[in-house]
């Protein structure tokens, strides 16, 4: 059984297996779902590792602008990619930000996680169904955004919550992104951008950022909320079972 959560790649620093978290009498399944930051810098050896992990589908949660600015060709390696933007179209980071550019960028990123989920119900349902179908076929899925933190963190939280993983473990999984991003994607941003305190805060992954979403799911019920946006009970039950060790 796989017990190493992080997949070490040369071209991405925040790639992790969602397996091994306690949920009821079992744990979340290993080598089933992977969360990641952007994939446009992957080497051929990196793509080989994804193939060896039997990843047959990549869900790209980035906005259209991000996808254009940092493209990759997973199909060259036999891995399908589906575009499912998980937030409103963002204002891209420029190489340098004047005061007005800073304001436009920060304003574009002000959606909290509850608002982000509520803004894209169709994308959420599509992501869950793609994962269910790929798992039914016996293969693994990888989903990612740019930093592998916000949009990726939201989908990871929904999947773990669906399996009955406790909030403490979901928050712990979320916070790991800050550690890996400090050594990875954050270094790709211009120094004057990273010097802006508000930008650094956006790139952090503290519990208070994800907690409101978990609270909303606790109050509404994860299954009930997902049914309210278009999922069926049988789909959710099947997906939950497919994400757990037998």
From TrEMBL:
This chain's protein is named Tyrosine specific protein phosphatases domain-containing protein
Q: Name one GO molecular function term.
A: phosphoprotein phosphatase activity
- One Pfam annotation reads Y_phosphatase3
InterPro entries for the chain:
Prot-tyrosine_phosphatase-like, Tyr/Ser_Pase_IphP-type, Tyr_Pase_AS, Tyr_Pase_dom
PROSITE patterns the UniProt entry points to: TYR_PHOSPHATASE_1, TYR_PHOSPHATASE_2
**Similarity section:** Belongs to the protein-tyrosine phosphatase family.
Query: Which residue ranges does the record assign to the Tyrosine specific protein phosphatases domain?
Result: 111-160
Which lineage do the record's taxonomy fields give for this organism? Bacteria, Bacillati, Bacillota, Clostridia, Eubacteriales
Q: What organism, scientifically named, is this protein from?
A: [Clostridium] innocuum 2959
